[in-house]
């Protein structure tokens, strides 16, 4: 069993147990705030089940129908989880708003407070565990599930504080008010998760990865690498793809071009950057490149070297060679 599968099974099992515990707390107390937490736990279980399937699917090898693998399903999983959180938050807001106008009695809040406090602590531990594994395995699904559990932890803390205030003040409507506030926070969390997953599905650029790649290339640049541009990144679950254009001396033969491109691939994958599959297009140099080319022994140089162009993310993502005056 892979590390990712083990992590999601732990998450799903814990979510089921905690969901049952929270509903027990609700039936004991009749508290809307506790019902809010219990309802979110249903989302945890549903999302965890879907996440388990997406983890299973994303680890399947590439095939003829999926030449880039099945990793994109993790973004879809995170999107579904975000939508479920949004729906749960909206339902909680409406339900609690009604009870804010028409309050009902609550009881045994001490027992309910203890149960919610314990479940919140467990969710925090499991959430941090999932985020840690997700970052190591580059799994969007695990990170999304972990952040969801941390959201659940924050709501549990807020509910515990609210329940304590109710016991101290005996103001019953505080229960529904607290539930409404927590509902808005849940909606906001669902929006953030949905927004991130949509960005992944639409191949939104990972600027952190771009910065890592550009930093390595700039620090270890070779003289024949005259220019790098049109650098783009994509993520397919745990797999990363990078493509770019590299300007090389036009008189290099195919073996030399292949050697330089292979060195770029090896450099990126051995210097702390996440493992990635690279597609590199080689461009021949032009006379306009001479004034920033480091090839001092070049026999066809048309112009003396003037100044090196420092590669930055803002420069290398542009789809053009960098001999424009504004870049010098």
What integer value in Å does the Rg equal? 27 Å
Q: Could you give a short account of the major beta sheet? A: 3 strands, mixed
**Total count of domains:** 2
The unreliable regions are none
- First-to-last CA distance: 53 Å
Number of strands: 3
Strands of the largest sheet, in order across it?
1-2-3
* Count of separate DSSP helical elements: 9
Structural write-up:
- This protein has 328 residues and is mainly α.
- It has two domains: 3-201, Up-down Bundle (Alpha-lytic protease prodomain-like), CATH 1.20.1510.10; 207-327, 2-Layer Sandwich (Alpha-Beta Plaits).
- Helices cover 62% and strands 9% of the residues.
- The chain has nine helices and three strands; from the N terminus they run αααααααββαβα.
- It has helices at residues 3-29, 32-58, 73-101, 109-137, 140-169, 173-201, 207-219, 254-269, 313-316, and strands spanning 227-236, 239-248, 276-284.
- Strands 1-2-3 form a three-stranded mixed sheet, covered by helices on one side.
- The longest helix is centred in the middle third of the chain and has 30 residues, at 140-169.
- The chain is elongated.
- The relative contact order is 0.12.
- The mean pLDDT is 83.
How is this fold's topology laid out?
Blueprint: H1 3-29, H2 32-58, H3 73-101, H4 109-137, H5 140-169, H6 173-201, H7 207-219, E1 227-236, E2 239-248, H8 254-269, E3 276-284, H9 313-316
Parallel strand pairs: 2-3
Antiparallel strand pairs: 1-2
Protein name: Cation diffusion facilitator family transporter
Subcellular location: Membrane
Keywords: Membrane, Transmembrane, Transmembrane helix, Transport
């Amino acid at each position: 069993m892979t590390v990712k599968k083990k992590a999601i099974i732990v998450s799903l099992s814990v979510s089921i147990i905690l969901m049952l515990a929270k509903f027990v707390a609700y039936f004991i107390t009749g508290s809307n705030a506790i019902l809010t937490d219990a309802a979110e736990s249903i989302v945890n279980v549903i999302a965890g089940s879907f996440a388990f399937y997406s983890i299973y699917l994303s680890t399947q090898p590439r095939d003829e129908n999926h030449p880039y693998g099945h990793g994109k399903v993790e973004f879809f999983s995170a999107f579904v989880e975000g939508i479920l959180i949004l729906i749960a938050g909206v339902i909680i807001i409406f339900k609690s708003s009604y009870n804010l106008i028409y309050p009902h009695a609550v009881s045994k809040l001490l027992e309910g407070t203890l149960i919610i406090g314990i479940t919140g602590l467990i969710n925090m531990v499991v959430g941090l565990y999932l985020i840690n594994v997700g970052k190591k395995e580059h799994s969007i699904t695990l990170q999304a599930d972990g952040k969801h559990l941390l959201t659940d932890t924050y709501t549990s803390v807020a509910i515990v504080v609210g329940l304590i205030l109710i016991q101290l003040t005996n103001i019953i409507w505080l229960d529904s008010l607290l539930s409404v506030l927590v509902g808005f926070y849940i909606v906001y969390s669902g929006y953030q998760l949905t927004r991130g997953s949509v960005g992944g599905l639409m191949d939104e650029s990972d600027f952190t990865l771009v910065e890592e790649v550009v930093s390595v290339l700039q620090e270890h640049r070779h003289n024949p690498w005259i220019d790098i541009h049109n650098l783009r990144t994509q993520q397919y679950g745990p797999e990363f793809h990078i493509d770019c254009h590299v300007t090389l001396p036009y008189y290099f033969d195919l073996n030399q071009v292949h050697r330089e491109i292979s060195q770029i691939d090896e450099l990126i994958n051995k210097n702390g950057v996440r493992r990635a599959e690279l597609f590199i297009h080689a461009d021949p140099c032009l006379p306009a490149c001479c004034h920033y080319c480091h090839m001092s022994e070049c026999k066809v140089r048309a112009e003396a070297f003037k100044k090196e162009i420092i590669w930055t993310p803002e420069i290398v993502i542009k789809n053009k060679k960098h001999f424009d005056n504004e870049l010098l």
